[in-house]
């Protein structure tokens, strides 16, 4: 019996997912493997899962869990600090060495805080760190993936590659509470995605962004455990709950599949209606 729970939509593609050790990135890496990717390169600063672990599997590293479920060699971990160009060279080389090529990049790694000071009281280091990971990291990842896409043979579909950047609804709308650096970084991610789509559409390279709303993850754990903060988020989400990483992952599968063959340059909100408010 096949370990895959559904017909494959990413059959034999080689994918690289950053921030894959927890939350949205972990869910995307696992979802990709479930759709029969040839290889998922799980890139993060460390392999161990972080955040709340409610089952024994939650404590397993992402690549080990994928290999256990879908077969040895289906995933590999590579250490990657997305703000460093050398890390990207290593990560892409790992994909090519083990998988023969790179088909899909998911720029998911990101940073954010539960409580920021107001901007006039904010240390410059907060801005620098946020932009280094959330904006520069996306730039470096796209640059590295695009270079590989352009020098390898196209995928059998005729397309050269797929980039899925995880932006945010706060790259579209601002958000109060000192979140200026985060909002600015995600706006950069979103608009870089659109620019790449315009520049590389003639090369048949897809570049799209996903804009999650309030989604449960290790990064947002402090917020959804804070009673007042949680109530505030739910009040502005018509669906009345937080999003789940698996719901973001489903969109990431779609945007890397043949089902999105005529889609590029979008920022897809997955937000329970937040942006409609």
From TrEMBL:
InterPro entries: NAD(P)-bd_dom_sf, SDR_fam. It comes from the Eukaryota. GO terms for molecular function: oxidoreductase activity, acting on the CH-OH group of donors, NAD or NADP as acceptor. Signal peptide: none annotated. Keywords: NADP. The keyword Kinase does not apply. Pfam families: adh_short_C2. Belongs to the short-chain dehydrogenases/reductases (SDR) family. PANTHER family: SHORT-CHAIN DEHYDROGENASE_REDUCTASE (PTHR42760:SF124), SHORT-CHAIN DEHYDROGENASES/REDUCTASES FAMILY MEMBER (PTHR42760). This is Putative 2-(R)-hydroxypropyl-CoM dehydrogenase. It comes from Lophium mytilinum.
